[in-house]
């Protein structure tokens, strides 16, 4: 069900780009936009409109909670490059380093100890890049 029936695809895209830039940074989005090709432009539009313009703008969860959910999902899928990017985004969204650690600890129980072990390695890398 569309919660914004009056909103156009262009408006969803614009809203999504705003949130995407706030969460991932202008630099990241600018790189993604600059790297678009005829082959990838539909995908970039899709994630801007749906992931960022529809899901990340819903009122049911705040950005802190969304970040915690995303971190867990990325650990589950072993998407380590995206995980590192979203560790940095989680900090921007208000999660503390301690809370990120707790998300990874929780994943050890529900996903696996090896997954959490790898997540700690990647989280530490991302956190050190932010602290530099």
UniProtKB/TrEMBL annotation:
<dbReference type="InterPro" id="IPR029032">
    <property type="entry name" value="AhpD-like"/>
</dbReference>
<protein>
    <recommendedName>
        <fullName>Carboxymuconolactone decarboxylase-like domain-containing protein</fullName>
    </recommendedName>
</protein>
<dbReference type="Pfam" id="PF02627">
    <property type="entry name" value="CMD"/>
</dbReference>
<dbReference type="GO" id="GO:0051920">
    <property type="term" value="F:peroxiredoxin activity"/>
</dbReference>
<dbReference type="InterPro" id="IPR003779">
    <property type="entry name" value="CMD-like"/>
</dbReference>
<feature type="domain" description="Carboxymuconolactone decarboxylase-like">
    <location>
        <begin position="42"/>
        <end position="124"/>
    </location>
</feature>
<dbReference type="InterPro" id="IPR052512">
    <property type="entry name" value="4CMD/NDH-1_regulator"/>
</dbReference>
